[in-house]
Each structure stands twice: as structure tokens, then as C-alpha cells.
Write a structure and sequence with these properties.
- By secondary structure, the chain is an alpha/beta fold.
- It is 32% helix and 21% strand.
- It contains 13 helices and 16 strands.
- Strands 2, 4, 5, 8, 9, 15 and 16 form a 7-stranded mixed β-sheet that branches. A 5-stranded parallel β-sheet has the order 12-11-10-13-14, sandwiched between helices. The protein has a two-stranded antiparallel ribbon with strand order 1-6.
- Helix 6 links the parallel strand 10 and strand 11.
- Helix 5 crosses helix 12.
- It starts with 6 loop residues before the first strand and ends with a strand.
- 48% of the residues are buried.
- The structure holds zinc ion (ZN).
- The site of zinc ion has 6 residues, from helix 5.
């Protein structure tokens, strides 16, 4: 990655100029960078986690200079209002229009020599962005932007539990993989009042970490024997888990599913794993945690920031490094390390 200076088109109707204060490095950024995501066109400005301050706004906008915002990949909500997704798409012309140019956007940033693509639409690894107001979530002014900027990771985990699975009190939950998304599934399960929250990870250091996020039991498949993972879960739960969240590759997973501990949810499985996983037998309540990209709810983001400020959710222990933006390459290297969780870049 290199840092260059580019020209940025000023905000047009319905758009806002945002100064990014902090940005998180999230897994899809690594996939985009490594070429694992074939949809990416280069040269591109990555970054889809960020938080910043409104500097100016085009006509037809309601956000004011100085207000704090978090950009979303998909415009769903304006100023944190809650609206049904479908209705919003139909009734808000700005949102519908804004949705299209986000991915691989090539008109916002300019360079003399080359076309610059924005991926995945947000380009939060840029000190300034011009963004549709409809794709900005307004957040409270007192929230530290270098913490709440990891919104994608947090929303993905919380949404899986609160939105997708609609977990109920007293549930028995298994979380496979305790990376940042898995940790957020843990804390959402705790919020909802799950009875038993079992974390599964190959890294034993995740035991004490998981406990901070509400995990009640920990299983390392390497310790119990990866072929005995399902048995270990049955030992704890007696009748099996009510909900299984797949948040990362863990040995023994297929065997668990075959034993009927989880149910394939087609919407959740479709993304990236459809080819390898559609053969799973149907059981109950199995969730492949999908990308927040598909949920993109501004009201949810504003709520998450409130929850953090009220001490209901933990973001501090998810952020393992904070670096000046100039060290973005170090950030990308660190993001792949075993004990690294989220890395935040500060401008
Ligand atoms: Zn992300």
C-alpha cells in the first residue's frame, strides 16, 4: 500500500464531505489487498470501517458541519432513523441512487494519470471522503471515534444474534471461532440473557478473552480432540445447543453439524461458502455469520455506539493495536497475526 495525494470531487446534491478521524482494518480489506476478492479493481482505496466529522454538505442534506458520523457500505438510514429496509429503498430516492455507485466507485477520487476505485465504496483509508448522506450514521458527539470506528466488526456479530437469529433468553449458544466477530456474538448472547455461551477456538489465549465478553464455557478442539468436539458440546449442553454461530474455520465443525447441532440458514450460508457447505444436512439453528455489508443499518450503528458509551458492550478489548495512519502497512501485517484482533488507524 502506498499513500498518495488525490483530488476529491466536492459533495454534490445529497452528499457530505467527511474528515475521517480513525479507520479500522477489517478482514475484507485484507482479502481485497491480497487479491482473494476478484471483484476489486485496482488501483483502489480500501477501508470500510471508519468514523469522522462532517466538514461540509451539499444541497438537500440535513447533517451539519461538526457532527460525527460513521459511513455504511449501503445506505439504509438517514441520521439514525429507523425505517424498514424495503420501504426505505422504495421511498428514499437519494438512498436508492446512492446505493449504486458505492462499489468500485470511480468518480469521487481523481488522479491525473489513473482511474481510482473506491472499495468497498467507503474508502475510509482516506483522510477525506465524499459520501451520500443516506449512507452515514450520525453518532453521539462524546463517543471516541478511534473506538467506535470498528462498527462493521461489531455490527456483524451483534446483528447475527439480535437480528438474524433473534436469540431468546435462556438459550444455549455455541460460537465457533473467537475472532472479533465471534467475540461480538458472545457479548450479544450475554446481552440477550443466554444461559450457556460456549466458545470454541484453537487458540487457548481466547479463553480468558472470551470470558470478558460473556463466554461461560470454552472448548479447544485440539485439547478435546477435534473428532470429539460435538461430544464435548453435548456433554455441556446435555440436549445440544439451541444456536450455533460459525464465525471462523474450526476443525470438527462439519461433524458438529452432521450431528444435528445446527441448522443451515440459506441466507447466511450463501455468502462465500455456498459451494462447499450446501451439502450440510438440515438441523436446527445454524448460522454462518454473514457480512454486515448485507445488513447495513444506520440505526443499529447509532445504537451500538450508545451501548458502548453506556458500558453495555466492550470494544476496548477488541482493539489490540492503534497506529498512526502512516503505518498502514504495519497494520495490514499485524491484522494477520494470531493474537491480533482489530487494528485501528488514526489520522
Ligand atoms: Zn468489515
Amino acid at each position: 500500500l502506498t499513500i498518495v495525494e488525490l483530488e476529491l470531487r466536492p459533495p454534490a446534491y445529497g452528499e457530505v464531505l467527511v474528515e475521517i478521524v480513525a479507520a479500522g482494518i477489517c478482514k475484507p480489506d485484507l482479502d481485497a489487498w491480497s487479491g482473494a476478492n476478484p471483484a476489486i479493481r485496482f488501483p483502489a482505496i480500501f477501508g470500510h470501517e471508519g468514523a469522522g466529522v462532517v466538514r461540509s454538505a451539499g444541497k438537500g442534506t440535513r447533517l451539519l458541519a461538526g457532527e460525527h458520523v460513521i459511513p455504511l457500505f449501503m445506505p439504509h438510514s438517514i441520521l439514525g432513523e429507523t425505517r424498514p429496509r424495503l420501504a426505505h429503498c422504495i421511498d428514499d430516492n437519494r438512498a436508492t441512487k446512492a446505493k449504486r455507485p458505492l462499489l468500485n466507485e470511480q468518480r469521487r477520487f481523481r488522479s491525473d494519470a489513473r482511474t481510482i476505485f473506491a472499495h468497498p465504496g467507503c474508502s475510509t483509508f482516506s483522510k477525506y471522503i465524499v459520501f451520500p448522506e443516506a449512507a452515514l450514521a450520525k453518532v453521539r458527539q462524546d463517543a471516541p471515534l478511534d473506538r467506535v470506528c470498528i462498527a462493521c466488526t461489531v455490527a456483524t456479530g451483534l446483528e447475527a444474534v439480535l437480528g438474524q437469529a433473534k436469540l431468546g433468553r435462556g438459550a444455549k449458544v455455541v460460537v465457533l471461532g473467537l475472532d472479533p466477530i465471534g467475540l461480538n456474538v458472545l457479548q450479544a448472547s450475554r446481552m440477550i440473557g443466554a444461559d450457556m455461551i460456549i466458545g470454541v477456538d484453537l487458540n487457548t489465549a481466547r479463553r480468558s478473552l472470551g470470558q470478558k465478553f460473556g463466554m461461560s464455557h470454552f472448548i479447544n478442539p485440539n485439547t478435546v480432540g477435534s473428532d470429539r468436539l460435538a461430544e464435548a458440546i453435548l456433554d455441556l449442553t446435555k440436549s445440544g445447543a439451541d444456536f450455533v454461530f460459525d464465525c471462523g474455520p474450526v476443525a470438527g465443525l462439519n461433524q458438529m453439524v452432521e450431528l444435528g447441532l445446527g441448522r443451515k440458514v440459506s441466507r447466511a450460508v450463501r455468502q462465500q461458502s455456498a459451494g462447499t457447505r450446501t451439502g450440510w444436512p438440515a438441523a436446527r439453528n445454524f448460522y454462518k455469520v454473514r457480512s454486515f455489508c448485507e445488513t447495513g443499518d444506520g440505526a443499529m450503528i447509532s445504537r451500538i455506539v450508545d451501548w458502548y458509551m453506556e458500558g453495555i458492550i466492550n470494544l476496548d478489548d477488541i482493539i489490540t493495536s492503534t497506529l498512526p495512519f502512516e503505518r498502514i502497512n504495519d497494520g495490514f501485517s499485524m491484522a494477520g497475526e494470531r493474537d491480533s484482533l482489530s487494528t485501528v488507524l488514526k489520522f
